[in-house]
From TrEMBL:
Belongs to the HIBADH-related family. GO terms for molecular function: 2-hydroxy-3-oxopropionate reductase activity. The keyword NAD applies. This is 2-hydroxy-3-oxopropionate reductase. Keywords: NAD, Oxidoreductase.
Length: 296
């Protein structure tokens, strides 16, 4: 029998499926629940166990990990008679790896404490590729003792792991991450259109730019998307729109000005309004192309 903690995983989407599978590979017993049967079948095929409900998944778990799209989804799976807090055992550790508002994380931690359940907010950065390769950056909010307990689990999922402060701090850092990523993608998209209209070899240009000060993880990960106009979602515009709302609201609350971020937030919103919300966030290139006169 393994001495590793038993894990319940709620939410097996683009990120949750490969992340849960990496825990199975690391030797953890993982019981998962999600709404899509094919995702449950995928986890079972990888060596995990499919559950028929949240209650069934979390009942015997030492650690419950959630990875769902937004604050309302976290609240839906956490609260109520069928939710995590009513069905997980006292003493369990709940790790929410979704990207949600800092206040939602703070409220969840307070509610869970009343049930004897400890909470960490631990959103991630790195996209689908980072999830598959287990090289995610994981930014964590909560108590040091709980972080130390969870660190071996994080090490099976990511490469850069940091406790950033009390409850909600992980979400605050994730909001800043999404601000930087959006602005970076927008700058790359503008550069791509400028380079193409100037008639240079785009592949060669992006390669040399990525080798200098203009280089970034964003350019490394999204270069082929730009070149091939392949916007299959790794991280959807819809979700980045949600995240830009989080960072804009959080910045307003603390009195931080985000002049460039506010412009990019509007560009993300406009792309979504034009029907591109289901595309990868590298599809910000389409918005720049439209503004530059292209029919896309």
């Amino acid at each position: 029998m393994s001495n590793l903690p038993k894990i319940a995983w709620i939410g097996l989407g683009i990120m949750g499926s490969p992340m849960s599978e990496n825990l199975v590979k690391a030797g953890y017993a993982v019981t998962g629940y999600t709404l899509e049967q094919d995702k449950l079948d995928r986890l079972a095929a990888a060596g995990g166990t499919a559950a028929g409900s949240i209650a069934e998944a979390v009942r015997d778990a030492d650690v419950v990990i959630t990875m769902v799209p937004a604050s309302p989804h976290v609240e839906a799976i956490a609260y109520g008679p069928d939710g995590i807090l009513e069905n997980a055992r006292s003493g369990a550790l709940l790790i929410d790896m979704s990207s949600i508002t800092p206040q939602t994380s703070v409220d969840l931690a307070a509610a869970a404490k009343d049930k004897g359940i400890r909470v960490l907010d631990a959103p991630v950065s790195g996209g689908e590729a980072g999830a598959v390769e287990a090289v995610l950056s994981i930014m964590v909010g909560g108590d040091r003792a709980d972080f130390d307990e969870a660190e071996p689990i994080f090490e099976a999922l990511g490469k850069t792991i940091a406790l950033c402060g009390p409850h909600g701090s992980g979400q605050t850092v994730k909001a800043a991450n999404q601000l930087i990523v959006a602005v970076n993608i927008q700058a790359c998209a503008e550069a791509v259109v400028f380079l193409e209209k100037s008639g240079v070899d785009l592949r060669a240009a992006l390669d040399v730019l990525n080798g200098g000060l203009a280089g970034s993880t964003v350019l490394t990960r999204k270069k082929d998307n730009f070149l091939a106009r392949d916007f299959k979602p790794g991280f959807r515009i819809d979700l980045h729109h949600k995240d830009m709302g989080i960072v804009t609201d959080a910045a307003r609350n603390v009195g931080a000005a985000l002049p460039v971020g506010a412009v990019v937030a509007q560009l993300v919103a406009s792309l979504r309004a034009q029907g591109d919300g289901g595309l990868d966030h590298s599809a910000l290139l389409r918005a720049v192309e439209r503004l530059s006169g292209a029919q896309v």
